[in-house]
Structure formats: C-alpha cells, structure tokens
Inverse folding.
C-alpha cells in the first residue's frame, strides 16, 4: 500500500504506455494570504493560517541486470485555491528526463523516461515540492447559494457514475430521492445529505475498497466509502461532487452557485470530526476527482497511481516509490519486484 496516498485506499500499481505530447512546465505564482483574503466574496471559502511544508516525491530503482526503455509516472500536488505549489528541487540520476503533464485539469503527473540502466545500477528520480496549504473556513453567507440549473461540460465529470461510486444503482437512487428537500436552501439540503450519510454509515476501517453501494447496504465503511456515498447522493440530486485525495485520507467537495452564477466548491469532513463547508487540514491535496481518463489506459481510474514500465530487462528490477514529507522516512512505500 502506498503509504502517503491513502490509508483507506489499497495501492494498485498500473502500467501504461507513455506516448502523449509533453506539456510545458507550469509557472507557479505565489499569492499572499492577505491578498487572497481581501479578494474573497461572501460566498467564497475563507483561507486561514497558511503553512508551508516540503514533500519529496519520486522513485528509486535498483536493476540487477540491463534495463532499457524505462518510462514511469508519479503524481505531484498542483495549485488549488487552498494551496500553492512550487517545485524547489530535482534529484535526478544521469540520463533521467522528466516532464510535467496535467490530466483533466485535476491531477498533475511527472512523466519520467530513462533510455538505459546498466546492470547493478541504482537510479532515482525525486522532486521536492513546497506546498503552502491553508485551512478552509466556510463562507460568511450561504443562504443564496443554488444547485446549478445547467451542468456545463467542465462539471459533467463530477456527475454520474465513477469507479465505486454507483450513482445509478436503484438502491442509491431510492435513498437519494427527496433527501434534503426539507432544507430551506441548497446549503441546508447538502448538509442534510451530509448528516444522513454520517448517521447511517458507521466508520470502520478496511483495507479493501468497497464503494458507495456496499456502504449503504452494510451501514459501515471508511473515509472512501462515506465519501463515495455522499458524492453519489449529491449527484442524484443534481449537485456536482468529487473526491479530494490527501496523504492518508480522502474527503468530498460539493459545488453550488451564488446569485451571480459564479460556482464554488466547498469541502466537508464526512469521516471523523464533523466539519461541513470547512476543512481544518494541512496535508497537501494530491488530486481532485474520481474518474480519470489517463492517456494509454482506456479504463477510468478512481485514483491516478504511480506507474513503472521497462521495455526490456534481463532481470526484474526493484522499484521503491517515495512520497514523504521532507526530512522523514517512508517505511510503507511499496517495493515492486
């Protein structure tokens, strides 16, 4: 299991063929907390007490034999309203080339290529990112927020079915109907859905991913199951919703529009201490979404995992993926043999 991805997400290494065009490197703008706060409107999330931290992300491969045509991918944090990200260091062995790629606007990957690894060599590709992450407080005004009347193309990926979010299952559709209609506005409607899921699904950690339907039927699940069921019910009520992935955890966000038609994403802590519309969390956002279309892989992915592939090797290599806060060890990173 990938230690800093999810404690409730079973790590699954996928192999893909990398054959897409390289995206140009992003330029990360640093914005002061005072400026962001001054620009916030009454329906905007409020960003508080930013903290900076550094994370090392990458891999180290040991090859007992000759290996050629190596390609790999690793996900790194990207800019979101609540965080700003800068690459501050690249630790690359000779012959290692890296390029960035953003997938569907929700996840950033580093694509790695290595032409040749000699027998007995150890090769690494590690980048260090500095993340300035802020706590999120709910907006000062919520009474004039609305469920979007029109689902625009950029919101469609946050509606419908995703892996392990069985939105159209008859049992989930049934419990979704009318849920929250007694709320006096859209914010209260979503909050009723939020509390219903927390009341009907008891938190129970499980290394096996089971999804929204199992959570509904069994009445238990961990952060992934509670997040999935909340998202499914929201989507059935016309409310775009998505998963947010941070090291060791995930939580949902939901989308509403204000009186001007401007859209806003709001987080909620569905598992653990109750927090609706706010997020008292400093761990960096790794990616947002739950149905990714990765170039070279026709199947939708719930989470964009690391990949590694060698076209030719005389002996199987050992690959250690790394995702750790700078200055700490990563004892749970998987070794792929």
């Amino acid at each position: 299991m990938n230690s800093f991805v999810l404690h409730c997400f079973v790590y699954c290494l996928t192999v893909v063929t990398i054959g897409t065009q390289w995206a140009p490197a992003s330029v990360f703008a640093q914005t002061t907390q005072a400026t962001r706060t001054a620009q916030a409107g009454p329906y905007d999330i409020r960003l508080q007490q930013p903290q900076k931290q550094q994370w090392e992300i990458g891999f180290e491969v040991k090859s007992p034999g000759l290996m050629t045509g190596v390609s790999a991918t690793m996900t790194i944090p990207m800019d979101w309203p609540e965080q700003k990200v800068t690459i501050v260091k690249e630790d690359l062995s000779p012959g290692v080339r890296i390029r960035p790629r953003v997938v569907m606007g929700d996840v950033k990957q580093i694509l790695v290529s290595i032409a040749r690894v000699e027998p007995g060599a150890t090769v690494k590709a590690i980048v260090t990112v500095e993340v300035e992450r802020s706590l999120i407080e709910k907006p000062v005004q919520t009474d004039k927020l609305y469920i979007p009347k029109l689902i625009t193309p950029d919101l469609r990926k946050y509606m419908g079915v995703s892996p392990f979010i069985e939105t159209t299952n008859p049992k989930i559709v049934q419990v979704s109907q009318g849920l929250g209609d007694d709320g006096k506005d859209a914010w209260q409607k979503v909050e009723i859905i939020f509390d219903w899921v927390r009341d009907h699904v008891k938190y129970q950690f499980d290394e096996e991913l089971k999804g929204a339907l199992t959570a509904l039927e069994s009445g238990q699940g961990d952060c992934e199951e509670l997040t999935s069921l909340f998202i499914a019910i929201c989507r059935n009520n016309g409310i775009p919703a998505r998963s947010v992935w941070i090291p060791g955890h995930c939580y949902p966000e939901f989308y509403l529009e204000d009186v001007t038609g401007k859209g806003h994403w709001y987080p909620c802590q569905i598992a653990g201490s109750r927090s609706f519309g706010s997020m008292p969390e400093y761990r960096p956002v790794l990616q947002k979404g739950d149905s990714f279309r990765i170039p070279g892989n026709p199947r939708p992915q719930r989470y964009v995992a690391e990949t590694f592939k060698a076209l030719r090797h005389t002996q199987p290599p050992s690959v250690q993926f790394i995702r750790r806060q700078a200055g700490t060890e990563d004892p749970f990173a998987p070794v792929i043999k």
